[in-house]
Amino acid sequence: MGVHVVSKLDNRQHASFDLEVAAQKELSESSVRIRTQLISLTSNNLTYALMGGFLRWWDAYPVSEDYPAPYNDPAAWGIVPAWGYATVEETTISDLPKGTLLFGFWPTTSTPTDLKLKRGSPEGHWIETSDHRQQLMPLYNRYTVTPSSTPISDLTIALNPQSDSAQDELDRMAWTALFIGGVAGYVLSEYVFSSDPNQPPIHPLGNQAGLPWTLSDGDLSSAIVVNLAASTNTARVFSYYLSRKPDGSAPLGLLQVTSGVSRIAESGRNLASVPSKAVGYVDIKSEENAEWLASRKAEKIVIVDFGGRPNALEDTLSLIKNHAELQSCKVVIVQVGNEQKVYSMEEMIAGREATAKLGKVQYNTSGVQDTILDSVDLEAYFKTRTTQWERWLDERHLSVPGKQIVFGRGVSGANGVEGGWERLCHGQVGGDEGLVYKIQT
Q1: Structural domain of residue 276, as residue ranges?
Q2: Which pLDDT score, from 0 to 100, does residue 23 have?
Q3: I need a labelling partner for 381 at 20 to 30 A (CA). Which of 27, 181, 271, 310 fits?
Q4: Neighbouring-strand partners of residue 6
């Protein structure tokens, strides 16, 4: 049984080891014992490690005292969770029988793990209630039952799958794990940037933050949107939903800044309802881009930073500042993600200072969804979100042309989670590949 751990002091330091699993203790009441099956690794996982202490992501799956030294020290080492699927192996919950497939936030281990669950809403949703996870944001404590026509053990990652239906089901699960069901891009587009008077827009941190976010803030109908790091998963989903907004509520244009210009340009042509232009990082400040932005006759420029490269934001702001027709535009900066790298403490401090100096608005998916769940019918919300995601899966060739799932196996080694983490730390995962791992081998 394999376990992957990451240093809390230097996230580039990580290790995997095999663990002889001792006889399991009796499962407590209202609990399930699961094994991680299929998970993804993305830049999000680097953020979970970077901010794991502050936002309590380390709390989800603490290292065990049974781990070999030094990895049994929770002050120095932790397990970075990942999104995907796990199966119930033992249970004391009658409505979650053995073999149930759950979607959620899982440990990067092949060892059995216990969860304490209570029934959530709507049906099929379960909430983790363990004491050590109570400071974790609600999004990360929600698990959902996933109907599967094929046992996951039979969903093989092979060049010649046993059946087309099994391979198709595996593919959809892999894309869902990789994009976390599209929830971040969906709620950002449909709830933060809502211009529907019957659905007041939600502040990017959620209304619980107590910060103003008016109908005018959410309205993109007179705005240009600039996506920094447009090749990232959340940016791709966000752009897709922007392109599906009803007439009169979509932005006037979408400038996509990316290292993968040709692919993003192709996606823009596929999702042609919003005028789109793809540019490389080195070309941000070109006069051609300034003229294109000015031609949209916008009143507002919304810069959404999904983790752009160094100076991308500064170059964008310089472009706006130095063009006469753009100077009168209101500029809003929403910070969503980080660059695919391990940040030093100095870089973290500089980032916080930049956020304050530039008046960036931080985005938090859980905060937004928490607000949604406090104000709408839960069953209707999740049904709509699932329907929209299924549509995205059907149309993913439009949104992510050329992007491929790269399957790996297990926890240890270059082809396992260990190798994927190494690549993430060094910014080696390209925009056209998505890392997904079948943990039980």
Answers
A1: 207-362
A2: 67
A3: 271
A4: 14, 78
